Amino acid sequence: KNEVEQSPQNLTAQEGEFITINCSYSVGISALHWLQQHPGGGIVSLFMLSSGKKKHGRLIATINIQEKHSSLHITASHPRDSAVYICAVRLSGSARQLTFGSGTQLTVLP
Amino acid sequence: KAGVTQTPRYLIKTRGQQVTLSCSPISGHRSVSWYQQTPGQGLQFLFEYFSETQRNKGNFPGRFSGRQFSNSRSEMNVSTLELGDSALYLCASSLGGVIVSVYEQFFGPGTRLTVL
């Protein structure tokens, strides 16, 4: 079983829809990252969370440490939001490296 | 501030050769991490350097090595290339420090390595 599970793997939405991507993890973590990867490979860090909720523009990220679960929400989705969204957790303890989910391919249709 | 830069952006090598990839972090960042991304395995952690010292290493064979210089620039080397080493290699920099988790990572554009 992967330490970081994302769902769904693929998501197609119409422009304007509210989108949710989920991430569950099974290990102790010190932080959780949401990353965005566009075709061509470049990765942008969207959020780094250790508790609660963060908002940036139309993006909202939440984390529930007790349930080991995080969600990324996109409000009023737009075709330019089409990308792969990756959840990554930073392990707690001496390891501390990032462990990644398999990603969610989001396509937003006009 | 300039972002993280990686050179070269694309590279084609043949099996058995070795390759060196370079990463220049954001000015002032002292931590550099390297990752491998393949269609089959996704993103995987290779190693992390902080102040010229390797602080963490992922589960990769000894053919994969790296180093960090006093100006925080980092290189990774892969010796005796195999077909399975074809991947996008990404580096990321952060401020680093004792509490690494506090600091956000900034990714470079990656080096796409093709092994023939």
3D architecture notes:
The complex is a heterodimer of chains A (110) and B (116). Chain A is an all-beta fold. Chain A is 0% helix and 61% strand. Chain A has strands spanning 4-7, 10-14, 19-25, 29-37, 43-49, 52-56, 59-64, 69-74, 83-91, 98-100, 104-109. In chain A, the strands form 2 sheets. In chain A, strands 2, 4, 5, 9, 10 and 11 form a 6-stranded mixed sheet that branches. Chain A is globular, with a radius of gyration of 13 Å. The relative contact order of chain A is 0.34. Chain B is 0% helix and 52% strand. By secondary structure, chain B is an all-beta fold. Chains A and B meet through strand 4, strand 5, strand 9 and strand 10 of A and strand 4, strand 5, strand 9 and strand 10 of B.
Largest sheet: number of strands, sense, barrel closure of chain A: 6 strands, mixed
Order of helices and strands of chain A: EEEEEEEEEEE
Number of helices of chain A: 0
Question: Helix-strand pattern of chain B, N to C?
Answer: EEEEEEEEEEE
Q: What is the gyration radius of chain A calculated from CA atoms?
A: 13 Å
* Main sheet properties of chain B: 7 strands, mixed
Query: Any idea what the radius of gyration of chain B is?
Result: 13 Å
Stretches of chain B where pLDDT falls below 50 for ≥5 residues? Answer: none
Largest interface, and how many residues on either side?
A-B, 25 and 24 residues
